[in-house]
Amino acid sequence: MPDSLQDLLDSDREAAAYFQSLPMFVQDQIRAKPGAAQTREQLASLANNLARDGLRLPQYQSVFEDETDSNIDLQ
């Protein structure tokens, strides 16, 4: 089993291709946690969680707002 993200990316072409397909902000956050993804499955799980958390940031809130029906409360 790879010991680090770089080991995983060096030894698994599919993991490397998947990593390269991720948004840059997700790649940056994964690189900040090099031991957190030692398998392709761990990499995918971490990426999904980071992308989901990233989309909750205030700068993306307008993407999910629908101004056509402001009577709906999604909270």
Largest sheet: none
Q: Number of DSSP strands?
A: 0
**What's the overall geometry?**
elongated
Mean pLDDT, all residues: 85
Strand proportion: under 5%
Which structural class is indicated by helix and strand composition? mainly alpha
- Our measurement of the CA-to-CA distance between the termini, rounded to an integer number of angstroms, reads 42 Å
Element pattern in H and E? HHHHH
Description:
The chain is mostly helical and 75 residues long. The protein is 59% helix and 0% strand. The protein contains five helices and no strands. α2 runs parallel beside α4. The longest helix has 16 residues, at 40-55.
Key structural traits:
75 residues, 59% helix
Topology:
Elements: H1 5-11, H2 13-21, H3 24-31, H4 40-55, H5 61-64
Helix pairs in contact: 1-2, 2-4, 3-4
Short description, anyone?
The protein has 5 helices and no strands.
